[in-house]
Amino acid sequence: MLNLVLFGPPGAGKGTQSEKLIAQYQLVHLSTGDLLRSEIRGGTELGLRAKMLMDQGILVPDEVVIGMIENKLKENESAAGFIFDGFPRTVPQAEALDELLALHNTQIKVMVALVVDEDELTKRLLIRGQSSGRPDDQNEALIHRRIKEYNDKTAPVANYYESQGKFKAIGGIGNIEEIFQAICAEIETVTANVRQ
Ligand code: ADP
To answer: Any idea which positions bind ATP (predicted)?
Structure first.
């Protein structure tokens, strides 16, 4: 299985690149942000609780997102692989993901991190907020809160994968197609190594 983690701060381009990667490698897309927004639309108890945190730019509790990922892994036993987008966002989530994948006799092959500076992220998110209607993209203070949450809790996840020799950083500013090709080149390198 080709299991990838697409990593980076809010607005780095994970959603855009995920779509292209799914088409290229026939992967199942698991975005915890999308799963949470679907719970909110459905008006579930979980959705209501998550919304209060998401509207403040704060991460939802680890057990909530881990439970959602666990269900999705079970639902997609025969997938060619998964692309994890916006998850894991904390070190305990990364540890839980390793355990869940081990239960399915598989593992993460590579984490690709999209690197984008804060000024560019803020610009992109404010533009996205105009068309997406996402409440967490419409207010600059809230965007800063999310980037701070990323720097405090999520950035250490990169070290977790670095220590497993799975971390690859890619510049996330510039032409979307060129960034995609750079990600594919990393994936090809990793899968070629695995076959040897
Ligand atoms: P972005 O990457 O643009 O911040 P997401 O759609 O991935 O957006 O996430 C939106 C919000 O959902 C986050 O700010 C957070 O509150 C919550 N969320 C998403 N994924 C996770 C996760 N793995 N752990 C905790 N909270 C999460």
So the answer is: 11-16, 128, 174
Domain 2-185: state its class. alpha beta
Could you tell me the two tokens for 44? 């579930």
Q: What is the pTM of this model?
A: 0.94
Adjacent-strand bridge partners of 30: 84
Site residues for ligand 1, CB cut-off 6 Å? 10-11, 32-33, 36, 53-54, 57-60, 65, 86-87, 89, 93, 136, 146
| Average pLDDT of the residues of the chain | 95
- Tokens matching residue 80: 């060619």
Closest CA to 72 of 24, 19, 36, 109: 36
Phi, psi torsion values for 63, nearest 5 degrees:
-65, -25
pLDDT at position 69, please? 98
> In sequence order, what are the residues at sequence separation of 6 or more whose Cβ sits closer than 8 angstroms to the Cβ of residue 76?
28, 82
